[in-house]
Amino acid sequence: MDTKTTVISEAQLQQQFAFCDKIHAYWVDRDTTPKAYVETYGCQQNEADSEKLRGYLAMSGYTIISEAEGADVVVMNTCAIREHAEQRVFGNLGALTHTKRRHPAQKIFLCGCMAGETKVSDRIKKSYPFVDGVFSTHHLWQFPEILWNVLSRGKRQFYIEDEAGSIAEGIPQVRDNALKAWVSIMYGCNNFCTYCIVPYVRGRERSRKKEDILAECRELIAGGCKEITLLGQNVNSYGKDLEGNGDFSDLLADIAALDGEFLIRFMTSHPRDAGKKLFDTMAASPKIAKQLHLPFQSGSSRVLKAMNRHYDREKYLELVNYAKSVMPDLVLTSDVIVGFPGETEEEFEETISLIEQVHYDSLFTFIFSPRTGTPAASMDDPTSKEEKSRRFDRLCAVQNGISEQIHQNYIGKTMRCLVDGTDKDMLTARTEGGRLVRFAGNADLIGTYQSITITGATTWSLMGELTQ
Ligand code: SAH
Ligand code: SF4
Ligand code: F3S
User: Fold this and answer.
1) What's the fold here for domain 6-166?
2) Substitution candidate for ligand 2 out of 238, 270, 371 with most atoms within 8 A of CB
3) Contact 212, 187 (CB under 8 A)
4) Does the model's pTM come out above 0.90?
5) 57-76 per-position pLDDT tens digit
6) CB 461 within 8 A of CB 452
7) What angle do CA 370, 357, 414 make, to 5 degrees?
8) Which DSSP letter does residue 288 get?
9) Whose CA is nearest to atom 13 of ligand 1?
10) Residues contacting ligand 3 via CB (< 6 Å)
11) 60 CA → ligand 2 middle, Å
């Protein structure tokens, strides 16, 4: 495998735009406005990629619709993180045989992280003949070419060669939300946590240049965007592959220095690379949300070592304590895996004691899922499924108690929130820490920051009213 990042040139991108023009002309010839549907699985990185797929489709003349029925193009942007995620994709892919039977000209594509696994592309080749194209994340920038090849040659396309990964600036994007935007600042991952498939399907870490990121942020803010979430598998190692570009904290400070009323969020941070400079930078700027997603994965130092996480329980707690000391209102969330191969009852109890000690606002909890090709998939795993489920339920129960208690403490507080939408007859808003608040109000408040007093709370959300 090539280990160098491929930088996609302006000329290469222009070629793709020329394919968009050909596709457009193809439909004009047929006097048809074609429709496209993009289904997104997995994390925000995939959400951001889907905005680019939609951008290309819109440039090719497609109207974006919200279901597969009747679509001329269906793209499944998939996630490979756990077995369950893959099963869902295969199930939903199977269902597309019906939409394609009703609309035989429908072209079906599978991309995203699953497309980077040979076992998946082999299975599609053999058993899913109605899938017209498969392309890994490295080839997303070539989507117009792939689509054109399918339309013009009627032959299945597989763009799945393994490579270190590419960076392409300037792919058009159709964004989901005008108020809140995802901005990928880097791609790939070098960490190789022993349970995780991401480095295998998303390639090596590569950072976008700071000026490109700043230009995108400036444009978003000028267009009325109020919240920018910077994305990367490990944002704290941003810039390590670029010379003279500065690190992640420098990038945050530079974005925060842009004019305008907006908040910056980011994810995900890796405890190995996060440190005092980051937390001091966050504390110093009112434009950086006091919100941190800092996955710990396990409370046991032995398990963390087996996971190849490069920190131990003590280092993690030290980090969190420092972050809380400089940001007393910090909203802290995390990811945790139960049932990693060989995790003992005592080690699981260390995870429970860590969440009781840290007091997360909320947690994303997972049961270990073996991924083919990762080291953990071939580790001895004597713990039964039932026992893992029991640990999982206990973990969720403890965390739910903590989340509810933290939410109760919001009652009576007045907070500045971004009003971002509606839910039935209520408006929704987000606190600076990213907590969801429902309140009564006029829809013309959407897109503004308002002062809201919290009047009630559940495990998952808050109720409030506009402060008089
Ligand atoms: N880059 C991020 C996480 C990306 S994946 C980070 O390092 O924190 C999101 C979460 O899925 C991980 O934090 C982990 O908790 C979980 N996860 C990843 N692989 C998994 C697996 N094989 N089984 C169960 N959970 C897994
Ligand atoms: Fe996976 Fe670890 Fe990379 Fe996160 S840091 S994407 S968990 S390998
Ligand atoms: Fe899934 Fe890929 Fe994200 S595996 S979690 S969509 S990086």
Assistant:
1) Rossmann fold (3.40.50)
2) 270
3) no
4) yes
5) 999 999 999 999 999 999 99
6) no
7) 110
8) B
9) 335
10) 42-43, 45-46, 79-81, 112-113, 198, 202
11) 35
- How far is residue 258's CA from residue 287's CA, in Å, rounded to a whole number? 10
Residue 440: name the closest of 453, 423, 450, 427 by CA.
427
Domain-wise residue ranges, the chain: 6-166, 181-408, 414-466
Is residue 268 lining ligand 1, measured as CB closer than 6 Å?
yes
Q: What is the mean pLDDT of the chain?
A: 96
Of ligand 3's listed atoms, the one at least distance from the Cα of 137 is 2
Q: CATH fold of 414-466, please?
A: OB fold (Dihydrolipoamide Acetyltransferase, E2P) (2.40.50)
Which is nearest to 171 in space by CA: 5, 14, 23?
14
Does this chain's domain 6-166 share its CATH topology with 414-466? no
Half-sphere exposure of 295 (CA within 13 A, CB side): 20
Residue 361 CA to chain centroid, in angstroms?
19
Report the CATH fold assignment for 181-408: pyruvate-formate lyase- activating enzyme (3.80.30)
pLDDT in tens, 160-186: 987 878 899 999 999 988 899 999 999
* pLDDT over threshold 90, residue 460: no
Q: Which residues line ligand 2 (CB under 6 A)?
A: 189, 191-193, 196, 198-199, 233-234, 270
CA atoms within 13 A on the CB side of 104: 1
Q: Which residues contact 446 (CB under 8 A, 6 or more apart)?
A: 179, 419, 420, 421, 422, 427
Residue of the CA atom closest to atom 4 of ligand 2: 233
